[in-house]
Fold each of these.
Amino acid sequence: MTNLNELYDVLVIGGGNAALCAAITARQTGASVLVLEHAPREFRGGNSRHTRNLRAMHLQPTATLTDSYTEADYWKDLLDVTGGKTDEHLARITIRGTTEVVRWMEAQGAHFQLSLSGTLNLSRTNAFFLGGGKALMNAYYLTAERLGIKVAYNTEVKSLRLVDGAVQDAVAISEGVPVTVQAKSIVVASGGFQANIEWLREYWGDAADNFVIRGTPFAKGVLLRNLLDQGVAPIGDPKQCHAVAIDARAPKFDGGIVTRLDCIPFSIVVDHEARRFYDEGEDIWPKRYAIWGRLVAMRPKQIAYAIMDSKSEKLFMPSMYPAIRANSIGELAQKLGLDENALEKTVREFNAAVQPGAFNSGSLDNCRTAGINPPKTHWARVIDTPPFIGYPLRPGITFTYLGVKVDENARVLMSNGQPCANLFAAGEIMAGNILGEGYMAGIGMAIGSVFGRIAGRETGKFARN
Amino acid sequence: MVICNSCRYCEGFCAVFPAMEMRRSFSSGDLSYLANLCHDCRGCYYACQYAPPHEFALNLPQTLARLRAETYAEYVWPRLLAGLFQRNGTFVSLLTSLAIALVLILAASLRSSALFTPRHAEPGAFYAVIPELAMVGVAAATFGFAMLALAMGFRNFWRDTGGGPVAQTRSLLQAFSDVLTLRNLGGGGHGCNNRDEAFSQNRRYAHHAMFYGFMLCFASTCTAAFYEHVLGLVAPYPLFSLPVLLGTAGGLGMLIGTAGLIWVKVQADPAPAAKAMLSNDYALLAQLFLAAATGLLLLILRDTRMMGVLLALHLGVTLSFFLALPYSKFVHGIYRSAALLRNAAERPTK
């Protein structure tokens, strides 16, 4: 068993991508490193085990990335999705950091592959991990073991004792036994609070009970709350999060990628009263998939239904759950538990509003509606060819954006603006510094990797002084 | 597999995933095809976010190995013998012991005087122990039958997984190279997972040693036949003759390869393995190991009085190997090659 009683140079709290990036980087500077992971070994890696790529800036084509993706392109995309709610300085550090991070990851045993089929055409912007995020985490843990980093699983850190902006020690429960752990400096990389439904209820009320948590059930935000309670500066709107619309039949936690549905641009989406509520064809899916979680979350009962006909069936990646099929709209309504007349009326009105156009699933086409509200501005085709198909949708929360404020060295800031002496943060717990709202694929891993590396570098320096 | 198809993170590991993605639903023939396309590198198990203890408890290598074991029984010819795959380890070991006993008894009764007589490895020495006609006749008959049964197995598999002609040279060449390099036994290029999350090329190298060793031994047998029937040179041959050189190199390769594969298997993490397949695996590996070991021993001791017994042993093991051929794990080579051929044919050209 890992010895938790000795004094380590660096204590890393969390076991995902940001945590391991910090731990490995710190260890490579010569520091002794202890990693405390809440999950058991089988579920180690936090949300990173469900990820699959990292958005990386690059100036020329690489083995796994096509074309180029400059700082300006990256910054523009980020500005676009966050609506300007970002810290430009920290964002640009992240963006620049991604140019070297892919190479660094490969040096730690990570493998990349050519971009996957059916994945939102990201081969220019995103580097894909061979085998996905769990394979990446396996590589990191193997490297950590080789480097002599100590890892304790089943160890949840409950609190950090902050005195005058310096962490004295950490109180944890390891394998059910309370322990106090001491280290010269600390990296918190323990994720958001998305798996803490009680906490979500503070902002969302009863609606939170209908949220599905796509990732790890261990992200309870225990340390986040502990730090905020001790006067650490908060960042980010507590209601903001990365949320997508997923199959309502998904398990409450840890369903990961297989519950997602990419069918919305080729469907109409209705709420529990069978009414449409948002333009399903507003923009190409990679630019819109991350808004639908919130849209569904804000509907009554937090449920919605994607309705399409057989023309659209093969245009998107299937979820692991079977499509619900029927030979008439009425029958489909019945199977979905919707009012038959209401759904028939919605489909009839939608069909009547569809304008002629040349359908093209791959680009912004000219198939749109006229005279209804909300409109569907692209990919609008009449729903008339049985079998008719429906999928139930729920908000799927990936991670929350409320976090701790950090500076450019990943150092945690107190509410009075003073930096903590020996406390650093990386990953979801500080992603809100850069992501004020919205999301784009692979930015979470980018922030975690770059700030994990910075936190590792800084704690390494700290240990030497 | 529906889960795999909506995840696709493992796409880069091997040919199974892209082949899976070409289908939205799976017939039993599709499943046979995918199961035999899988080389059991287990990369997808360790990378899988849904592997047990996740509630989806996805264990693709184990599922495919189980299916694969079922296909061996399903496509066997004649169908009557499907049961032999039920307890394959028992069957193969019984057959091996019986074959050894049979050859020993025959040698003892036909040429009792020759079996323990010390003699030098002069031409014709082997036939003094086992009559030429018996040796060649039995070998030709068992080999011929095995080829027929394997060909029928191939036909059954090919028909069930979709049939159709394979005319394109490109596909044939691609499949041929996939078989010879075990390209798919590499988890995308860096090896298999044996004990845990770490990758290793050991299994692939061991299989190469065994496979090419086997091929060299086969080549040795063919050149020996050529020497004897065309050139009129009678075995045993001198140490530096082609058949002996090929056989020695091949035997060593098989010895190292089979020992390596057994070692990998013994140490392997049992979680992604299918129990149903293990007895098949060990049985064939043990047979090949014994064949190589007795062959090499025969070469070393052929100038001693042990030669007769060792020759009988070696021939006994070899006989059992060819008798069991269509009913042992050896068939995986046929079905996997067929699956690779189908894969090469259906893969979109780039």
Amino acid sequence: MSAGQRMSSGRVSRRDYLGLAGTGSAAAAILFSTAGMLRLPKPRVLPDVSSLVSLGKAARFAPGTVTMLPQQKVCVVAGAEGIGAISLVCTHLGCVVNRNEQGFDCPCHGSRFGPAGELVQGPAPRALPWLAVSQAPDGTLLVDAAKQVRPQTWYKASS
Amino acid sequence: MAPSEPPTFWENVRSLRRNLLRALVRHGAPTSDRARSQAVFGNVFLHVHAAKVHPSSLRPTATWGLGVSLVSQLILLTVTGVLLMVYYMPSTELAYDSMKDLHFIVPSGRMIRNVHRWASHLMVFFVLLHMMRVFYTASYKKPREFNWLIGMMLLVLTLALAFTGYILPWDQLAYWALTIAANIAASPNELAHALGLPQGFHVGTLQKELLLGSTEPGQHSLIRFYTLHCVFLPLLTGMAMAAHLWRIRKDGGLARPEGTPTPAGKGAASTSPPGQEAHQAPGKTYGLMCVVADQSPHTGQDPDETVPSWPYLLRAELLVFMVTMLVCVALGYLFDAPLREAANPAVPENPAKAPWYFLGLQELVSYSAFLGGFGIPVLAVIGLGLIPLLDREPEPGGVWFSGGAGRREAFWAALFGAVAAVLAVAVPVNFGWLRNWFPGVPQLAIILVNPGSLLTVAYMAWSLAAMRRTRSTRMGAIALFTCSMVGFAILTYVGTFLRGPNWDFFWSESQWPGH
């Protein structure tokens, strides 16, 4: 019996049924085990360090000063109203920006930002975000890199 | 005739030497064409070759030996790569030190690393040259469409191998290239954000986390790239290469111009009269070719037009291999593979440049991360893959530029492609771009209208016009392919030589501001 006859006859013989069932279950098994394996590269919890970074005592930042902290990837602006933190991570592709007289420059693809992180030029899609500042019970200033706040959000630190 | 007695144990011991030799060299000494042909098709490594080849495929100008050189580079990369693995440690703490050890302490470690790096650069360069050869000689046409697609896969794999490779030293180049690549993987978010889509559509975040195994480059990223570079991608590349070589033979050997007599009738099936069905062919004469169920050659065009692969083809391949090795070793002897400072997550290099083959892309990325890093590359690979499906004008192939008309088409397309690419760089350098003219312009406008997207549209328009003017899809394909290659070359040149700190434009490195 040719394959064509078998397919068109409308009745499936026992041999064909077993063959199809075997092939189908093998395909399903391979499919589901592959799908299971593809889950592997995405862990349930990412092995990240805490997004909270310590900036030291608040007294370190005198009003009217701008402090670059590239290790913490943050620029601390201290004004009359309090302390603000601008992220130094370029919103384009994640390079750490440098500070100059006009604001911030990205070395990788030429994005430029104003003194408060506002977008001036280049491929970056957004301004440099301001980050939430808080204080630990012992008075240490903390910046949360994962928590963005409105620009010009000032934190009144208690010393 | 009575069956002879099986040899006794002692007889076997006495004839051990002779029988061992016979087991190793199963077809006798390669003293005749017949024995040599048997060696070629009886040996698993040699049988990727046909037993006989057409002399037109052996002309240096038919292929410039680019494919064989690529196989040679892959062999060199595998050997040197396995040797480098003896000392390399995939840890963010130790990787950089193991590169220093390879350079200063390990005997011949420096040379082996240099050869590995030069072979990888040559491989990227030669993959592009090989693609250009196959395109311009129309060797992608029926029945070779599938092999062109495998070729596209090998192009992507080669770039992926090169990229994952330069992450491993964990120097400044590696760290910031990884940061940028991960954010390019996340750049579909830029589009989703510009369109105001909810968080669920931000697939970029998933891609970035899959690549890094974290949200920032670190140990989990390095081990992923190590596994990709040393196991996963080489396995895929090896399989794709095997399929690529196999298809050359199944598709009738190298494409040959009209008029060159064909050995097995397959390459020019359209021009030769229908042959006999394989199972009816006289077994004795054509037994060698009738292993495959297909049309057999008719008697007028017999295999005598061809020459035996051993020695003619094997000799040519050995020559290409030796020249490739000579070039890699000479470059490795003269120029050390670079190693920047150890990775510093606080300070990127300024300028932070990728290796040359990604600098054209880096130039596009400096207009829009999503379009330059994701949109245009994906479009380019899809466009290249579609070439043999959209240009189906029958042509046996093997003629450069398909003749004089194609050569003229390529010339004008190259000129247009060059002028357009220079403009795409010169206008933003001199006059700025949308954000300078209209501060507060929405990001969507910049994603859609930037020098990279305009250049792509200009190239497409030019080649559509060329196709309409010549009424030929092949001419349209030549125009688009030539434009794109010239544009890629010019953007690569600009990214390599004309961009300095902060990705500003400088005519020469001597004008860079001092640090």
